[in-house]
Amino acid sequence: MAETSLDGGDRAPVVMGGEPGSYARSVLTERHPALISRVRDAHPYTPAQRGRLDLLLEETASGTVQPLRPEAHDRGAWAAWGMDEHTGVPWTGLPFLWAESYFYRRLLGAVGYFAPGPWQGVDPFEPSKSAELHSSDADEEMQALDTVALLPSEERDRALLLSSVWGNRADLGFALSEREGPADPGADGGTGGAAGEGLVADESGRLWELLGDAERVCFVADNAARELLPDLALIDLLLASRRVGSVVLHIKPHPYFVSDATMADVLAALRRLREAGGEAAACGGRLREALRGGALTVRAHPFSCAPLPYSAMPEDLEADFTGSSLTVLKGDLNYRRLVGDRWWDPATPFAEAAGGFPSPVAALRTVKSDTVTGLDPVVAAELEAGGIGWRTSGRCAVVQVAG
Ligand SMILES: O=P(O)(O)OC[C@@]1(O)O[C@H](CO)[C@@H](O)[C@@H]1O
């Protein structure tokens, strides 16, 4: 991919993991240890698996980055992604994005996710994903589809778009930080209740223009369960209304960042929709047929779990996006990878920070980390005046479009 502002140049420093008092540091030194202890109890892991988790905890807390074992199937990929360069560095001495991504790869290694044997392919986050998918909140969201289906088309479109945007708050890793977002941020049209909540950037008008006649849309999903359900409902709307000819749903090739959706999660969500009855079941049935007929295809590219910005994407993935009328990126991590996880001035135009992406691109994201762009300067100043917490609370969201 051409050198572009996506690499950020020297205009905005990369978010590092070790800044004292920073959100990034709290993730590495508080959220990740808490996650390890939760994963330890997620399944009846053996003493050997628990021992490897304990070693990972010790390494990330006070040690230096250790490389993947020589026999690791993806050692070459991680070497290309900077593993050797970062080996021997304290975990808090890394770029935040790299540290987090490598942490989740090491976590999978500790529980034997990739190793031949009984635990191969067992998702350490499945219990929490499944509990969320079968929660009463999920029931209510699927029942709401019956009401949404009766709305005038513009109201229906907005309801499903906002549901997808705010579905991004359903992030199990984020929940570990126990930050409370607005009770129901989408209830009043997503503008939020108190100042500094809700949609702080809303380019949905431009988004619908692009979706109005899109031959092919790449939809890069984020989290499973309560985020994936509204994402699938939105994809169904786009296909069933024939505004979009086909959708390529990008998911993760393996578990990642606790909640990120894998194919198993897509199938579980489809099953959940079809079992829910009413409009949810109709939606699930249409999506199943779209998969069988090819209007909906699923991709799981290895780079989707890479520790790098999209500016470093390989040519085949770039070609996939290039061939699309629009790429929709869901969630905070995809946003960070789109704009290079840098300390941008929040008023930096989104198109500038995301410049160079190979298709028109839309970000549907709740703001859960420090990287923010594309805000009106007055809005940015108001938010900043309230302190830096707005960047990581999940109480703000953006719908932003470049191209
Ligand atoms: O991409 P998502 O699921 O919306 O958010 C991922 C996330 O929870 O993980 C990181 C902290 O662990 C943050 O960057 C971000 O808030």
TrEMBL record:
Pfam family, one: ARMT1-like_dom
Family matches, as InterPro entries: ARMT-1-like_metal-bd_sf, ARMT1, ARMT1-like_metal-bd
Reported cofactor(s): Mn(2+)
Residues annotated as transmembrane: none
Top-rank taxon, per record: Bacteria
Span of domain Damage-control phosphatase ARMT1-like metal-binding: 29-376
UniProt keyword terms in alphabetical order: Hydrolase, Manganese, Metal-binding
Catalyses which reaction(s): beta-D-fructose 1-phosphate + H2O = D-fructose + phosphate; beta-D-fructose 6-phosphate = dihydroxyacetone + D-glyceraldehyde 3-phosphate
Family from the record: Belongs to the damage-control phosphatase family. Sugar phosphate phosphatase III subfamily.
Name recorded for this polypeptide: Damage-control phosphatase ARMT1 family protein
Source organism (scientific name): Nocardiopsis suaedae
